Amino acid sequence: MKIFINGKECEARQNQTVLQAARENGVYIPSLCYHPKTGQAGKCRVCVVEIEGMRGLQTACTVPIKENMKVTTNSETVRKAQRLVVDLLLSSGKHDCLSCEQNGCCELQDAAYMLGIEHPSFTLGDCKTEVDNSSEFIYREHAKCIQCGRCISGCNNTVVNEVLDFGMRGHDTQVICDINVPMGKSSCVQCGECSQLCPTGSIIDKKTRGRGRQWQLSKVNTTCAYCGVGCQLTLHVDSAANKIVQVTGREVVPNDGMLCVKGRYAYEFPSHESRLKYPMIKKNGEHVRVSWDEALDYTANRIREIVQKDGPDVFSAFGSGRITNENNYAIQKFTRAVIGTNNVDHCART
Ligand code: SF4
Ligand code: SF4
Ligand code: SF4
Fold this sequence. Notes:
Layout: E1 2-5, E2 8-11, H1 18-24, E3 48-51, E4 58-59, E5 70-72, H2 76-91, H3 107-115, E6 131-132, E7 138-141, H4 150-158, E8 164-167, E9 174-177, H5 193-197, E10 203-205, E11 218-223, E12 232-238, E13 243-249, H6 261-265, E14 280-283, E15 286-289, H7 292-310, E16 317-319, H8 325-339, E17 344-346
Parallel strand pairs: 1-5, 16-17
Antiparallel strand pairs: 1-2, 3-4, 3-5, 6-7, 7-10, 8-9, 11-12, 12-13, 14-15
Helix pairs in contact: 2-3
């Protein structure tokens, strides 16, 4: 389907919204409440655009595209409206970016930067100052919440834990857990979906606080090592210290960004001091470090000696739900084709 954005012809797909089509065509429309996973929200009103033939400004995240639609995202009217909304959001919270963990990867900050807002223009009275530090892994600061609802949608519809909702009314509206109890005392399972979806620094991973700005961390995409689901994740690594300081889920199959509490927060083990980092062989009662060549030769020779002496059925191999299908395939192939026994089992079989 053909549409025109700021006078330029763009390709778009049936059933896309104006915002989705613009994003796919590399046109930035500031938006805060829309996320591909949580879908249309139409709450924040930041993504307003002009559409030929439609009265007033329209929210790009809710209007479906039509053939030959003409959209303007950068007129003075549009910018003025976007600026006002972002200005009001900044003014109604405590947005001290210098000390905020989200500085440099905050969608509200990106919108303010793009719209040239240097300081909030309004004084809207006292904002909420409470923080919720009760959860083991998640830190919440209500004053940075822009009430976009992405965390609520993620918790209720994506991971279906149904912990979060909006509570109170008007100026006092805020995201609450269960019947407004601290997160650490709620039914939250600490999956971290809400912190991953939050566009600001209102819900953040506690363990990551103060451990490096996002632009200082290198990103490594990998597969979670904890179970056989094979969730895709990104490690955020402090290269100087050679330490992982955060894990986020990648929005691809099989997990679509979701992770369990272990996959998201139990990431110290690769740099734990008692981790086995090199091969060792027991010599004269003591484990000593050896090269991979020596360790593999030793293991192959011992297997050969044992199988030649007592036959292949004294050998058995165990695969694991924590390794890849390819590794499990190689284990059973080696056992059957090289050793000559069907003694193969798997920890996830029952
Ligand atoms: S949430 Fe965003 S805009 Fe607010 S203080 Fe943090 S970085 Fe700045
Ligand atoms: S951590 Fe998971 S369960 Fe807890 S509030 Fe956030 S999304 Fe819901
Ligand atoms: S806590 Fe974050 S995700 Fe949730 S409503 Fe507030 S700004 Fe949006």
